[in-house]
Amino acid sequence: GAGVSQSPRYKVAKRGQDVALRCDPISGHVSLFWYQQALGQGPEFLTYFQNEAQLDKSGLPSDRFFAERPEGSVSTLKIQRTQQEDSAVYLCASSSLGRARGGDTQYFGPGTRLTVL
Amino acid sequence: DAKTTQPNSMESNEEEPVHLPCNHSTISGTDYIHWYRQLPSQGPEYVIHGLTSNVNNRMASLAIAEDRKSSTLILHRATLRDAAVYYCILHQGGSNYKLTFGKGTLLTVNP
User: Fold this and answer.
1) Could you tell me if A92 and A4 are in contact, meaning their C-beta atoms sit under 8 angstroms apart?
2) Is there a contact between B98 and A56 if contact means CB atoms under 8 Å apart?
3) Residues in B touching A40 (Cβ below 8 Å)
C-alpha cells in the first residue's frame, strides 16, 4: 500500500518568504509527527497530532513555525519569514495509535529538503 | 527520554555479519529499545524493538544484555543496501509517543 508522502521534495526559499510543506500520512493512521533534521544530525521532534488535535508542539523552535491537520488526515507545516537556520530536511511520520506495547512503529516519509538563501 | 550512546561509524564487508552496539546505562524499567535506520536521502525506517528478551525478525536480530544497559543490533549478512545510519532509541510507548534520535552509527558496507 501507499506509504507516507511529502511534497514538495525540495524547496528553495529566499530569506523572509513563507513556505508550506505538505504531508499525506498512511490512510487511517491517527498519529502524525513532524521532525526536523539538520545536516549530519538525527531527526528532532517538532510536533505531534492525534487526529486533528495538536497534542504536543513543544519542539517547534519559534512562533514562526505552525502546523495544522484540520481534518485529521493531511497535515501542513508552515514556516513564516524563513531564516537561513531553518534550512533542513523536514520529515513527517505517521502511526496507527494502536497503543502497541513498547510504542507504535512510526512510518516516515522521504522528507522535504528546505534551503533558505 | 533516557540517552543512548553509539559509535559514530562502523565498517563491514558484504555478506559478513555486523554487530552494532548501543549503550543505555540509564534505561528505566519501562523503556523499550527501538532501532531505526535511515538510508541515504530517505526517511528513517523501523528495524526492530524489544524489552528484555532477544528478538528476531526478517531484517535483523536484537540482543539485549541481561542488565539491559546495552544492546546489539545484528545484521546476519550485510548487503550493500544495508549501508545506512542506524539509530538506537529508548521509547516508553504509552503516552510518550515521540522518538528521540541521537546521531546514530553510520554503517559502511564494502563490496
Assistant:
1) yes
2) yes
3) 103
Grid coordinates of B105: 552509527
User: Over the stretch A28-79, which tens digit does the pLDDT of each residue have?
Assistant: 998 999 999 999 999 999 999 989 999 999 999 999 999 999 999 999 999 9
Put simply, the answer to whether B51 touches A102 (Cβ < 8 Å) is yes
**Residue A77 in contact with residue A53, Cβ under 8 Å?**
no
Any A CB within 8 A of B43 CB: yes
- In B7-52, DSSP assigns E strands to 9-13, 18-23, 32-38, 45-50
Cβ pair B6, B63 in contact under 8 A: no
User: Is the sign of the CA dihedral B76, B77, B82, B83 positive or negative?
Assistant: positive
If one counts every other C-beta atom within 10 angstroms of the C-beta of residue A64, the result is: 14
Q: Return mean pLDDT, chain A.
A: 93
Rounded to 5 degrees, φ, ψ at B106 are -85, 115
Return the sign of the alpha-carbon dihedral for residues A66, A35, A108, A10.
positive
> Per-residue pLDDT tens for B27-52?
988 889 999 999 999 999 999 999 99
Instruction: For residues B22 and B72, give the distance between their C-alpha atoms in angstroms, rounded to a whole number.
Output: 6
